[in-house]
Amino acid sequence: MGSLILGTFLRFYRLSENLVFHGELGHNYLAIKNFVAEGSVPLIGPPTSHPWLAFGPLYYWLMAPLLFLGRFDPTTGALFMALISVVALVAMYWVGEKLFDRRVAILSTYLMAISPAWVSLARESRFYSLVALLFFLFLFFLVRALEAPKTSSGKQQKATNLFWVGMFLAVMLNFHLTPLALLPGTLILLYIHRRQLKKKALLLGGVGFIIPSLPFLLGDVQNRFSMLTKLLIWVPYRVLGFLGFYPRNNITTQIAEKNLSSLYDFFSQSFVIDAKILGFILVGGVTLFAARRTVRTLGENRKDWSWLTLTALFVIGYIGLFIHADPPAHYFVTLLPIPILFLGLLLGQLFGKRAGQVLVTLVLFLMTVTNLRFFFSEKWFFLPETQILKDGRVPYRVQLEAAKTIVATARGEQFSLSRVGPFDQFEDNYAQNYQYLLWWLGNEPVKDTKIRYTVYEDITKLPQIHKGKVYWIGNLAVLRVEKPMR
User: Fold this and answer.
1) How far apart are CA 266 and CA 264, in angstroms?
2) What average pLDDT does this structure show over 167-191?
3) Do residues 281 and 288 touch, judged by C-beta distance below 8 A?
4) What pLDDT does 453 receive?
5) CA 397 to CA 409: how far, in whole Å?
6) What is the largest CA-CA distance in the chain?
7) What is each CA distance from 381 to 12, 124, 319, 388, in whole angstroms?
8) Residue from 321, 327, 289, 266 nearest 120 by CA
9) I want to staple 154 with a disulfide (CB 3.0 to 4.6 A). Which of 148, 166, 213, 291 is the partner?
10) Distance (Å, rounded) from C-alpha 107 to C-alpha 110?
11) Which residue has the higher pLDDT, 30 or 237?
12) Average of pLDDT values for 48-67?
């Protein structure tokens, strides 16, 4: 209960003051707003980084009623995703106790409550946050499918569990494509247990996978399955390139170093932040523990499939991310629960000895103090609210004031909008967050009008000579220009 209270506090405290609201979130919310206004049901979800591919629509289906009930306030999505992260704490305890023991469950839940990576994910309000929660259910049912007895009732349990394995894998894929990295490990584990699997069980797993995929497939039918076809080509294309059979996406020493560095950061930031020595010790300890336990488990007659499943999904899943070549940090969301479980298992084992209890208490104390010092600083809870940050992030308060300034000075007239700043090479200059706020405040921008506003998040690019008026919100500039219409 203490872990749940602490974790909830860290996820909700000053959430609106530190709200993350960038162009990609604005794009998602604008799409949802349009679907609600049209009364239509989308079959295709948010776009991916590949222009030919989109996710499934479950995120839109989930967020549409929530935004509607929240009167389309941008904080609605942040509150919901923070709540999802709290639910994930409950899922961690439940899975930790079911697959391992109560001690591991308690320790892992506490580690997750104070984890910088988990708290950060909760604050980002992104749709892929749901993947981390769904992983717990996927893991639980996969282990139960592998451990089901060979009796007739056990075979029925195996089939039912595989149905849920397929179901939750497909649901995860609605929110991001990185759960595909779980598929090879899952298939290998099922192959090892092939003698215990009946066609009915595999069929049910396939049915479970297809059900959440139906909306996407129906949407892709309209494009003659172009997305599915290109995806099926793209996966082996990436693999062949990685293996050197194709002169693109080849592995290099530089890429390998970046991959290993990102893996280390993933583990370290799952545990602590701004603590290089402590992070190194924890990552090193977990690595040695995982290697020794895996070797020992493989040598036992009675296998610990909870551990082997967790390890296989991580190792083989990471290889999938490695093949992608220098994956962005959020690609690790599929594997996010695993480092915490690894450390929880290590500390749980140490806690069984008297000397180990002292060591575990010391480690938890150091982790807690380190992370809370970071959270209660100007690097996290008390970030500046009236100035663009050094890393380029724009506080929500500044964004909202900029939007209010535009609405007030436009005085009900139509206007167009552009943006100058990071990622402005993307669609609509990556200004969809401002577009959404302007719509929410009552005057949505349109194309090709006499009045044009440009938001300068990068003020070094603000023209020295112009025929307009500049409004300043901290160190963000809004330039209004009126041009004669032809």
Assistant:
1) 5
2) 95
3) no
4) 96
5) 18
6) 83
7) 10, 14, 35, 16
8) 266
9) 148
10) 5
11) 30
12) 92
> Which tokens hold the place of 385?
């609210």
Helix (H) or strand (E) holding 469: strand 469-473
Q: CB–CB of 392/380 below 8 Å?
A: no
Whether pLDDT at 238 is above 90: no
In contact, 420 and 394? CB cutoff 8 Å: no
Region 252-262 average pLDDT = 84
First to last CA, the chain: 67
Asked if 486 and 452 count as a contact pair (C-beta separation under 8 A), the reply is: no
Q: Is the pLDDT confidence value at 151 over 80?
A: no
Q: What pLDDT does residue 327 have?
A: 80
Q: Give the span between the Cα atoms of 140 and 413, in whole angstroms.
A: 56
* Neighbour tally for 63: CB within 10 Å: 22
Report pLDDT for 248: 67
Question: Which amino acid is located at 155 in the chain?
Answer: K
b/e burial code for range 122-135 (CB count within 10 A of at least 16 → b):
bbbbbbbbbbbbbb
In sequence order, the 6+-apart residues with CB closer than 8 A to the CB of 363 are 282, 347
Residue 199 CB neighbour total at 10 angstroms: 8
Task: Note the pLDDT of residue 485.
Answer: 58
Residue 479 is given by DSSP the state: E
Could you tell me the pLDDT band of residue 486, with boundaries at 50, 70 and 90?
Answer: low
Instruction: Find where tokens 């001690």 sit.
Output: 103
**Secondary structure class of 37 (helix, strand, coil):** helix
| Residue 194's pLDDT band (cuts 50, 70, 90) | confident
CA distance 431 to 24: 9
**Cβ atoms 432, 47 nearer than 8 A:** no
Average pLDDT over residues 235-263: 78
pLDDT grade for 303, boundaries at 50, 70 and 90: confident
Upper half-sphere CA count for residue 282 (Cβ side, 13 Å):
31
Query: Which residues neighbour 148 within 8 Å (Cβ) at sequence distance 6 or greater?
Result: 154, 155, 157, 158, 161, 196
How far apart, in whole angstroms, are the C-alpha atoms of residue 115 and residue 273? 9
Q: Which amino acid is present at 37?
A: A
Stated length of the chain? 486
CB neighbours (10 Å) of residue 297? 16
Amino acid identity of residue 39, one-letter, is G
